[in-house]
Every structure is written in C-alpha cells, then in structure tokens.
Amino acid sequence: MFHSLNRDIRNGVWHMKLLRNEIKFLKELGDRRFYGQIATRQLIELQPQVIWLYALISVNACALAFTHYSIAPVWLTIAVPGALLPICLIRGIHWWSLRPHEASDAEAVSYLRRTSLVTALLSIGFVSWGLALDTYGGPYERGHVAVFVAITVIACIFCLTHLPAAALIVTIIVMGSLIPYYLISGNDVFIAIAFNVLFVTIVMVRILLRNYADFVRLVKFQTETQRLIEENAALASTDSLTGLPNRRLFLKRLDSWVADQRTNGNEIALAIFDLDHFKPINDTYGHLIGDQVLIEIGRRLAELSDANTVFARLGGDEFGVVVRQLKNVSDARFLCDKISHELNKPVILERVQLVTGCSGGLAYFPEGGCSAHELFDRADYALYYSKENSRGAITTFSDEHENNIRGERAIEAALHDNDILNEMEIHYQPIFNTRLRSISSVEGLARWNSPSLGSIGPDRFIAAAERCGRIHTLTIGLLRKALDEARSLPEEIGLSFNLSAHDLISSATVISIVSAVRASKFAPNRLTLELTETALMRDFEAAHAAISTLRELGIKVALDDFGTGYSSLSYVHRLPLDIIKIDRSFILNIDSKLGSDIVTTVLNLCENLNLECVAEGVETDSQVNKLQLLGCHYVQGYLIGKPVPMQELLLRIQTKGKILYFQRTA
Q1: pLDDT-derived band of residue 240, with 50, 70 and 90 as boundaries?
Q2: In a domain, 60, yes or no
Q3: Is the peptide bond before 366 cis (omega within 30 degrees of 0)?
Q4: Rg (CA), the chain
C-alpha cells in the first residue's frame, strides 16, 4: 500500500514536472498563450472552491477545538486555532473579492503560486495541531482527530482539483505525517484507519490527476479553437494580396474611432486614394505585374502606419487611411502629401519603372460628416472630384462639395417621380455626310427641365440615375420616345442613341431594348446604339454578349468618345462594332501635325477594320476641310447644327429628290 502511495505521489510529481516542462517549452517557443490561458482558467475555477475550502476547514477546526477544550491545554485549543483561523478568514475574504476574469496571465500565475505556498504552510500547521491534540482524550476524541484529518485531505483534493500542485502538497504533507503516526501507534483501529485513509487518498489522487488532464486538454482545445477563430477573423479582415486591412476592418475601425471621438473629442481624418495609372499598367503588362505593383504600394503604406493610423486596401486600386488624435488638421494634410509622394515614386519591376500616381480625397470628422458612413462618403466624393477636375491632387471636402451633394440628392429624389419621363424631352443633333452633302443620321440627346430644380445637364442626371437605380427606367423610356419621334424622319436618316455604362451589362435592359425596338415599327437597321469605353471596361464579357444580341437584330453599334480611354484599341478588334466616333478633343487640334497624325491613325484603323468613322465636335469650316482631306466623311458638331427638338429639326431639313440637305446653324 505504501508502495502504491509512493507510486502515485511519484506520478503526481512527474505529472507536475511534465506540465512545468511543457510550459517551459511553450515559453521558450514564445507561445505564452496556452500557459496564460491555463493559469487564468484555473483561477476562475478555483475561486468558489477555495472559498468553500477555507469555510470547511474553519468549521472543522472549531469543532475539533471544542471537543478538546476541556482536556487539552489552552494553547492548543485556543491559541493555535486563534492563529490559524484568522489566516483562513483573510484568505477566504481575499478569494471572495478576487476578480479572476480581470486578472492578466502574469497575475493569475502569481495567485496560483501564492496559493500553493499558503496551502503548504496551512497544511503543516493544521496537521501538526491535529496530531498534537491526538495525545489528549479518549478514543472518541482521538477518532475525531482522525476524522478531521481525513476529511480535510479529501476536501482539499476535491476543492483543489484545478490546482493539482497544491492538492498534492496537502496530500504529501498530511498523509506523510498521519500514516506513519498511526502505523507506529500499535492500535489496530488506527492502523486500519490509516490504511482506509491511504486507499481513499490513492483513489482521489488518481481521479484528481485524470480530471486535471481532461481540464488541460479542454482548455488546450478551446485555446486552439479560439486561435483558429481569431486567425479566420484576421484573414476575413485582411487583404490577401497586400497584407493591409481590408474594407471591412477599415470601416469597423472607423466606426470605433468615431464612437470614441464623441467621448474624448479628438479630431479624426479620413482619406481615400485611387491610383491614376494602374489600369494601363494592368492592361499593358498583365495582372501579375499589376499585383506586384499593388503589393509594393501596400508595403509603402504599411511603413507609414502607427497606433493612431490605419491603412487599408478598399478594393481594386483604391486605398484608405484613417487618422485619430490629430493635434491640428494640418497633420492630416501633411500625411496625405507624404502618401501622395510615396505613391508617385516609381515601382521598379523586372527592370521596368512603373509610375502609378494617385488622386485623393480628404474629409474631417465631424466637419465632413456626423457618422463614419457620412465621413467615408464625403472623402469618396472629394476623391471623385479630384479624379474629374484635378487628377493627381488631393481634394479636401468643403462646403461647396456639401452643396453639390445636396443638389445631387435632390436630383435623385426627383428622378423617382412617376412623371419624370414627361418632364424630359429629346433633342437631335445631325450627323452629316460631307461627300453626299446630306444628313446620314441624328443623335438623340436627352434634356431635362425640372419644374422644381430647373435645367439639369445629362452628365448630372445620368450619373444620378445610375447611383439611385433609375437608369433602366430612363433608358427604356427615352429610347421609346426617341423611336416614336424618329418615325417622322425620312427613311434615309437613321437614329443614334446613347446607352449608359450600366445598360450594356444589364441583361434585363438589353431585353427591354430589343422589345422596344420591335414594338416601335422603326427599322432596326436605322438604329445605332452608342456606348463608351467605360461600359466595356465594367464587364467586357457581358458587354460583348449584349452587343452580339443587338447586332443580331440588325442594330448598329458605335464606340463613342474614342481615344479618351486607356484601352480602346484592345476593345476595337475584339468587338463586333460598326462605327467609331473620334472624340472632340482630337478634332480641336486637327490643324496641328500631332492632331492630324492621330486622326489619320484612327481613320486608317477604321478603314482596315471596315468601320465607319464619325468626327465629333466639328466647329469650323477648316476642320471639315481637313477631315475631308484626311478621308473622314461623317462629321458632327455645332458647325453642322446644335441639338434641337424633332419639330425644329424637321423644319430645317430640305429634300431634293432622294438627297437630304440640312440648313446649317448660322
């Protein structure tokens, strides 16, 4: 039996050494997470149990002192308990007031070590006191001592299940004293008690070690699970390409800092940056090089981050930064200038220097918005303003921009009026064939004169319709109106109609266009639908499918504003186009050698691909003469005629036989 006890004690000591070695190994690896997690969980589980343990020991000690009060010296029944019980009381109160959930890992380890030390000291004190009392009284009093010691050991093992080191200390000290004491007493009853207590202790120690091992495995499993959850959360909040926080984490951090700002009053700034020349880099060198550029941009931004600055990749080639605890607003502007400087540095890849450049938008809280959402929208608007009006600059959101936003919201609200199509009309601008001196077609251009907002340009209400989801309604409604009015045109004149970037990639809109054309009784081969490169860039495959569907019906397709985008040439040979319209910016400089060479190149391209070519923005006779000399015979512009309603257009058309002439605007 002694051998079994010694074996279990050795197993317990070995287990504790193994645990210490494992913790040491984990610490050496730098992984203190599991070690701290075990200590914290031990502290949480121990708190209620240790309180009850001190209460149980105190009650048992008082009962033992009471039964020996009349037969033992006062120093044993009063003085010794008077010294030990206050310690139990103080420790019990300490554990009762403890907040284990708030303790750090280091504090938890310190608590557990102190508990083991105090347990050892109290064990020595109580077992010594109990054995000293055993020399007084009769068999009942001595039996009470045996019960006191046995119950105390069992209670300690139960209550210290989550701190096996302390439980084993109690067992070794108490059993190491009690068992030999009873075995050499020569009393058969006490010898039997010693063996009974020893057997119970062995069983309890085995259960203790097994339960603690299960506890350790459970905590380890929970820790690993939590680690995986946090890793998944980190992956879900991190851009996989650049390693920067993604849009989700960026907005979450922005929300948090805005909420804190309401309390502490610190200034917050939000800036959004968009790379100006990333698209041509991607198209010219491929996505692999494009990804390398984004990785380098992410690295440069990450070097500028600190505890009060968060950078993120918001998507594509768009990046964001939010800064808090600004001493003054100039700090944010200084950081934005620094970011712009970094993003304008060349990126050297495979001996190629690539310069992305960037435009930015900056907004401050609360001046730029009363919530995180509004602040983000204001910075995004400032970025859009930079891209449209001062590419490469950083625009700070201002009161003027706020007024523009309110105006756009008013437009969006007006677009939802059920009578919106009745408020709009279509003006028609002729496209002139210089060889035949006649109109070949007219381009329908929407005009909106709102009763409440006044005259609103197409660039504004089309963009607003795209934002608020009304573009489908406008496109189909205006197309039907244009087809209906175009039936009054001579059969030799066709109709040209512009599609929004959203229209071409919407299968529902394409189906509606086909239905409108079939129902109009206007010959499909007289209709040309104009689209911009933006529409193609949004979703090339969807655009290609839509164009194929429209051409199967006999509708012609024109690429408008050719030359203003980055990748027009890559689309021309891949799409079933019929017409290319040269942007007015090239016609403006056609008298220069460079302008003339560009137009010549486009005309040669159209001739090789068997495409018609229309020159837009013609305003002088010299431009017409130059275009005719270069071989371009379709022109459009204010020289030929401004956009006018259909009735006025018909009045200005003159017929001579089968040739249609047009009275040019004076």
Answers
A1: confident
A2: yes
A3: yes
A4: 43
Dist CA 300 CA 342 (whole Å) = 7
- Our count of domains for the chain comes to 3
Give residue 138's identity as a one-letter amino acid code: G
> Is residue 46 a contact partner of residue 163, using CB atoms and an 8 Å limit?
yes
Percent share of the chain, pLDDT over 70: 89
Does 412 have pLDDT greater than 90? Answer: no
| 267 and 350 inside one domain | yes
Residues 227 and 296 in one domain: no
Distance between CA 505 and CA 536 in Å, rounded?
A: 8
Question: Whole-angstrom Cα distance, residue 107 to residue 98?
Answer: 11
> φ and ψ at 553, to 5 degrees?
-80, -15
- Do residues 485 and 433 lie in contact, with contact meaning Cβ atoms separated by under 8 Å? no
Alpha-carbon gap, residue 136 to 73, rounded angstroms: 9
Residue type at 321? V
Tokens 């090789």 belong to residue: 608
Alpha helices, H only, 564-634: 568-572, 584-588, 593-608, 621-630
> Residue 321: beta bridge partners?
271, 311
Query: Among residues 341, 376, 397, which one ends one of the domains?
Result: 397
Q: Taking the CB of residue 142, how many other CB atoms lie within 10 A of it?
A: 20
Burial 326-336 (b: 16+ CB within 10 A, else e): beeeeebbebb
Task: Give 202's contacts (C-beta < 8 A, 6+ positions apart).
Answer: 4, 5, 8
CATH number at residue 544: 3.20.20.450
Same domain, 461 and 387: no
Return the closest-CA partner of residue 231 out of 223, 241, 219, 221.
Answer: 223
- Whether residue 308 contacts residue 257, with contact meaning beta carbons closer than 8 Å, is answered with no
Question: CA–CA separation, 574 vs 563, rounded Å?
Answer: 16
Q: Quick check: 583 and 602 in contact, CB under 8 A? A: no
Interval 536-568: pLDDT, tens: 766 778 888 888 899 999 999 998 878 665 445
In a domain, 664, yes or no: no
Closest CA to 418 of 463, 477, 459, 466: 477
Beta-strand relationship, 527-531 and 494-498: parallel
Six-digit token string for 413:
């609200």
Q: Coil, strand, or helix at residue 559? A: strand
Q: Is 241 inside any structural domain?
A: no
Parent domain of 589: 410-655
The alpha carbon of 602 is separated from its chain's Cα centroid by a whole number of angstroms, namely 44
Please, which pLDDT band fits residue 235 given cuts at 50, 70 and 90? low
Q: Are residues 370 and 452 in the same domain?
A: no
CA-to-CA distance for 93 and 80, rounded, in angstroms?
A: 20
Q: How confident is the model at residue 23 (pLDDT cuts 50, 70, 90)?
A: very low
Which residues are bridge partners to 245 per DSSP? Answer: 238
Of the candidates 397, 420, 443, which is a domain's last residue?
A: 397
- Do 363 and 269 contact (CB within 8 A), yes or no? yes
Q: Are residues 493 and 555 in the same domain?
A: yes
**Three-class DSSP category at 32:** coil
What is the chain's length?
666
Element spanning 333, H or E: helix 329-343
Whether 328 and 467 map to the same domain: the answer is no
Question: At 593, which amino acid appears?
Answer: K
